[in-house]
Amino acid sequence: MQGSVIWAPILVLLFVSTSLVMPAVATGNVGNDDAEFGFPSTPCQNIIGASVKAQASLQSNLVYTSGDGQMSLQYNPDLDISKQCQTGPWYGGADWFQTGIIAKRSTNCAVLTIEVYNTFWGSTDWSWYSNNANCTTVNAMFNSGALWYISEHTSACLTNCGSSFEKIDSVSFGVVGGSGGGSYYYTENTPTSWYWLRSNICFCGVTDGGTIYNPTFTTASGTLDYQIGSGIWSGFGIIGPPIDIATAENSNMQYGCMSQPSSGHLTQSFHLTGHC
C-alpha cells in the first residue's frame, strides 16, 4: 500500500568545508557514535562475493519525538577508512557509501535509500530512493517483534576480473512489522564503483530542508545482528567506535557492547540506558 510523498528528508555526511576538522569521539556507543563491524587488523579489506547484513530486531515498541516526525536506521561506513581506501568514479574519489531506512511512526512509513557522497567536494555522487521517494506503508513496523534490515552485497569474480571485482553491486532492504503486521522487501542494483568497508549502525535523525531533526527516543529496546552471508569470515570482528563521526544526524539511542557468538556473526543490544 502506497502512502503520500514525504520527500525532502535525506541523510547527510557531516561536512562543512574542505578544511573541516571532524569532532573527536566523546561518547562511544551512543547515537551516531556506535561501534563498528569489519576487519580490525586490515582496514582496507573488503568482502569478496558476499554480503554483510545488519538487522534490528525490536523487543519493545519504538517510540520517539522528532521535529518533523521522522527517524532513520543508517548503515554507515567509517569516514577515515573511506578516505583512505574507497574508490569513486569522479574526481576526488574517497566516496562515502551510505544506506538507510527512513521511517515515520505516525504513518508506519518507510523509504529506503542509498546515498553516496564525495568527501572531497561534499557533494552527492550517486543516490537512490525507493518508489521514487514515495512512502510505503508497513503496518506495525514500529511494534515489538518488528525487523528492519539492510544487506550490502559485493560482486564475485571467477575469471577475467575487471574493475568491478569485490565492489558493492546491490543492496537488499527488509522491513517487517510486528505480530500481524505488513512487510516490504526490495533489492536495488548499484553501479559497481564502491567497496564495502568497515561500518556501523545508528538509530538517527534526518535532514529536512537543510535542518537536522534528531529523534528523542522514549521507548526502545532490541538487538542488532551483523552477519556475513558467505565469503571471507576469517578476521571479521568487533571494532571500536570511529575516531571521526561521519553522519550529521544523531539521537539519544544507546548501544551495548558487541559480542561475537560465532564466526562471521556479531550481536549488540540497543536501549535507552547503560551504553557500552
3D architecture notes:
It is a single chain. With 276 residues, the protein is mostly beta strands. The protein is 3% helix and 43% strand. It contains 1 helix and 21 strands. The strands form 5 sheets. Strands 3, 10, 11, 12, 17, 19, 20 and 21 form an 8-stranded antiparallel sheet that branches. A hairpin with a 2-residue loop joins β20 and β21.
* SSE order, one letter for each helix or strand: EEEEEHEEEEEEEEEEEEEEEE
Arithmetic mean of pLDDT: 87
Percentage of residues in strands: 35-45%
Individual helix count: 1
Structural class: mainly beta
| Percentage of residues in helical conformation | under 10%
Subunit organisation of the chains: single chain
Radius of gyration: 17 Å
Low-confidence stretches: 1-5, 16-25
Task: Write down how many β-strands occur, each being a DSSP E stretch of 2 or more residues.
Answer: 21
Sheet with the most strands? 8 strands, antiparallel
Shape: globular
Cα separation of the termini: 39 Å
